[in-house]
């Protein structure tokens, strides 16, 4: 090995173009910058469709959970019995039920007469 | 050239908005060592330049996760070694079918490369080195030219020290035998 070292020395036989190492630093920084930009753009392109889908989903969730119940509550009354929805009614002046209203038989007959016209009365009398 | 401690460079790299500055210091400090390491594997300047750029891009990306599981220098050497060997393997796979042919390609590169400043004896030695297998060549170059310790080489190549010693010994014997043949042929 000693003879080997003496004859061949540990000399680097290769060389580089003039100014190669001086320019290398700037070239490498530029390369790294470019690839980093490319990588970030790549990540954005990858994530973008998923973000879009998430946005649509959240919007749908917002509409279903927040907006729709508010709109429904204005027009509908839900009658619940033991936690189970049994009937949906359109809220109008006529079908609001007052539990305290308890008419007598005379009041009912008077009401029915007032609602019937004269032909109906004649027809009823024949029977 | 001012030399910075690896720890300083890494700390700077992790500081806010100091990545580029730290990386510039790192490039400045290690560009030549890594270049010559790759150059001895690939022989040609152009290929070495391409691979070196990839190596530094990988170092940049990996530095964010670097946690001193090995020395910074051995970690970078490992990246450079892997990239250079991958380049050779790709060449072997795409263009040539066998190890012999890649040796011939490397020898042709040695002859045709404009950036070889050694004399005929140096070229003879390089030719003899090219007769070795990739691993023998790697171990020989790292030990003989780069003066790396077997411990550092073991970390870089992931091979036991004993195996490296045996590989180096066999490589030297093979080179000596090759050079003897050349001497005999030259009279």
Classify the helix fraction of chain A into a percent range: 55-70%
Strand proportion of chain A: 5-15%
Name of the top-level CATH class of the largest domain in chain B: Mainly Alpha
Strand element count of chain B: 0
Structural class of chain B: mainly alpha
Task: Specify the CATH homologous superfamily of the largest domain in chain B.
Answer: RNA polymerase sigma factor, region 2, helix turn helix motif
Helix count of chain B equals 9
Proportion of strand residues of chain B: under 5%
Tally of individual domains of chain B: 2
Mean pLDDT of chain B: 89
CATH names the topology of the largest domain in chain B as Rna Polymerase Sigma Factor, Chain: A
CATH architecture of the largest domain in chain B: Orthogonal Bundle
Overall number of strands of chain A: 2
Query: What assembly state would you assign to the polypeptide chains in this entry?
Result: heterodimer
Main sheet characteristics of chain B: none
Shape of chain B: globular
N/C terminus separation of chain A: 138 Å
Short description:
Chain A has about 130 residues and is mainly alpha-helical. Chain A has helices at about 1-10, 20-75, 105-115, 120-125, and strands at about 75-80, 85-90.
Task: Describe this structure as you would to a colleague.
The complex is a heterodimer of chains A (127) and B (187). Chain A is rod-shaped. The longest helix of chain A is centred in the middle third of the chain and has 56 residues. The model of chain A has no long low-confidence stretch (mean pLDDT 75). In chain A, strand 1 and strand 2 form a beta hairpin. Chain A is mainly alpha-helical. In chain A, strands 1-2 form a two-stranded antiparallel sheet. By secondary structure, chain B is mostly helical. Chain B has 2 domains: 117 residues, RNA polymerase sigma factor, region 2, helix turn helix motif (Rna Polymerase Sigma Factor, Chain: A), CATH 1.10.1740; 69 residues, Orthogonal Bundle (Arc Repressor Mutant, subunit A), CATH 1.10.10.10. Chain B is built from 9 helices and no strands. The longest helix of chain B has 26 residues. Chain B is globular, with a radius of gyration of 18 Å. The mean pLDDT of chain B is 89. Classes of the chains: A mainly alpha (127), B mainly alpha (187). Chains A and B meet through helix 1 and helix 2 of A and helix 2, helix 3, helix 6 and helix 9 of B.
């Amino acid at each position: 090995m000693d003879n080997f070292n003496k004859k061949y020395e540990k000399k680097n036989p290769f060389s580089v173009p003039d100014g190669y190492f001086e320019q290398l630093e700037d070239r490498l920084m530029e390369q790294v910058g470019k690839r980093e930009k490319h990588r970030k753009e790549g990540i954005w392109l990858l994530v973008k469709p998923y973000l879009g889908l998430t946005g649509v989903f959240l919007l749908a969730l917002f509409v279903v959970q927040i907006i729709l119940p508010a709109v429904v509550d204005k027009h509908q009354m839900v009658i619940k019995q033991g936690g189970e929805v049994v009937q949906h009614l359109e809220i109008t002046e006529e079908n609001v039920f007052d539990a305290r209203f308890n008419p007598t038989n005379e009041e009912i007959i008077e009401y029915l007469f007032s609602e019937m016209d004269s032909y109906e009365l004649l027809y009823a009398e024949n029977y | 050239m001012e030399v910075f401690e690896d720890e300083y460079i890494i700390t700077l790299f992790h500081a806010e908005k100091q990545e580029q500055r730290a990386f510039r210091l790192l490039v400045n400090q290690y560009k030549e060592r890594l270049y010559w390491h790759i150059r001895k594997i690939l022989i040609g300047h152009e290929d070495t330049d391409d691979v070196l750029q990839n190596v530094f891009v990988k170092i940049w990306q990996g530095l964010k996760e670097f946690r001193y599981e090995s020395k910074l220098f051995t970690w970078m050497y490992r990246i450079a070694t892997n990239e250079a060997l991958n380049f050779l393997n790709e060449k072997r796979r795409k263009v040539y079918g066998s190890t012999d042919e890649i040796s011939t390609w490397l020898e042709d590169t040695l002859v045709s490369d404009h950036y070889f400043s050694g004399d005929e004896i140096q070229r003879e030695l390089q030719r003899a080195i090219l007769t070795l297998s990739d691993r023998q060549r790697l171990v020989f170059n790292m030990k003989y030219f780069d003066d790396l310790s077997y411990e550092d080489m073991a970390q870089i190549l992931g091979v036991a020290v004993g195996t490296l010693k045996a590989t180096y010994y066999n490589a030297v014997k093979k080179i000596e035998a090759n050079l003897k043949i050349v001497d005999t042929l030259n009279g």
